[in-house]
């Protein structure tokens, strides 16, 4: 893997001087100038997947390649576990109101939503006992701009947390993005406006402006750094600048499988199946043996296989071959 030394450059207005980075892509010339794409080092850009550092010719040096040391399985699981530990800590900070906004990025089926919802459920235990309104809401699927505005209003009080899970339609709509950016603004006062007449808002008793004091967690499968749409990149960079950004760094089949194994070894994965033997180990072994032929490598797939064991302990592998594997018959 190549490395580059930035002699003099900038990243989002911050000076980058005499620092070495792992090179992702050599210099690219665009309308706004030239930039080099690199991975963060230990002191600059921590928490991001890649950085695009603005440079001029002569402001950097390619300094060759260093063989990358392959991570062991234990190192991969420790890395992933650390990322999810950070996610737990930041979710707690959102509940406490110390984190206004967070974006969580990772592939589908690895437990992004589960970890966030588990922390919210723990924090809302007293509300459930008292049968009062919960201080959080998890929104899944498509949402219109006016629906977004109304939802933000309903959870605008301090201490409330809104989770948008796979609501990527918000990112593709200019009006929704503007509403969301106002909710995530870094200023002391986050004022949100709806500047057009709406019978729906009148009917619901929702004003045309309000202060948002809650927290927002946005969970998505989109990798912000790999999007090709320049317009969408600009919008998402505006969101990133307002939010804490957590990339769960699971980009390979191996990472996903080891994430599943990691959860299994904690005892959480199959706890509701009450297996009496080594059925859970059998599921993990089956997934490893068939990792290139599974329809998907995910926690959901592990639970599907566990369901099949409950259906037919003796024939579950035969059932799995017909329902969970590609090109099996």
CATH superfamily of the largest domain: P-loop containing nucleotide triphosphate hydrolases
Structural class: alpha/beta
List the helices and strands in order: EEEEEEEHEHHEHEHEHEEHEHHHH
Given the structure, what is the number of helices? 11
- Choose one word for the global shape: globular
How many β strands by DSSP?
14
* CATH architecture designation of the largest domain: 3-Layer(aba) Sandwich
Question: Any idea what the radius of gyration is?
Answer: 23 Å
Largest sheet: 5 strands, antiparallel
Assign a percent range to the helix content. Answer: 25-40%
CATH topology of the largest domain: Rossmann fold
Average residue pLDDT: 87
Cα(first) to Cα(last) distance is: 41 Å
**Biggest sheet strand line-up:** 6-5-4-1-7
Low-confidence stretches: none
The number of domains is 3
CATH class of the largest domain: Alpha Beta
β-sheet strand percentage = 15-25%
């Amino acid at each position: 893997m190549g490395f580059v030394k930035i002699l003099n450059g900038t990243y989002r207005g911050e000076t980058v001087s005499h620092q070495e980075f792992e090179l992702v892509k050599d210099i690219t010339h665009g309308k706004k100038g030239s930039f080099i794409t690199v991975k963060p080092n230990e002191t600059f850009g921590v928490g991001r997947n890649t950085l695009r550092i603005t440079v001029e010719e002569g402001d950097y040096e390619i300094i060759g390649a260093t063989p990358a040391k392959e991570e062991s399985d234990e190192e991969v699981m420790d890395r992933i576990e650390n990322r999810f530990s950070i996610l737990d800590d930041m979710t707690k900070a959102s509940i406490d109101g110390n984190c206004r906004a967070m974006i969580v990025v990772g592939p589908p089926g690895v437990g992004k939503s589960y970890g966030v919802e588990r922390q919210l459920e723990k924090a809302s235990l007293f509300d459930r006992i008292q049968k009062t309104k919960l201080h959080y809401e998890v929104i899944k699927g498509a949402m219109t701009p006016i629906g977004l505005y109304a939802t933000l209003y309903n959870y605008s009080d301090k201490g409330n947390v809104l989770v948008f899970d796979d609501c990527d339609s918000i990112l593709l709509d200019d009006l929704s993005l503007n509403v969301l950016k106002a909710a995530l603004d870094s200023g002391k006062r986050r004022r949100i406006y709806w500047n057009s007449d709406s019978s729906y808002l009148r009917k619901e008793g929702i004003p045309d402006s309000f202060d948002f004091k809650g927290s927002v967690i946005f969970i998505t499968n989109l990798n912000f750094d790999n999007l090709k749409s320049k317009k969408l990149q600009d919008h998402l960079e505006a969101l990133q600048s307002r939010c804490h950004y957590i990339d769960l760094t699971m980009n390979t089949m191996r990472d996903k499988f080891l994430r599943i194994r990691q959860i299994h070894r904690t005892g959480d994965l199959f706890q509701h199946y009450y297996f009496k033997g080594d059925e859970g180990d059998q599921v993990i072994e089956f997934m490893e043996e068939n990792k290139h032929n599974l329809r998907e490598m995910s926690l959901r797939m592990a639970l599907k296989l566990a369901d099949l064991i409950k259906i037919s302990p003796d024939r579950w592998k035969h059932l799995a071959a017909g329902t969970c594997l590609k090109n099996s018959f």
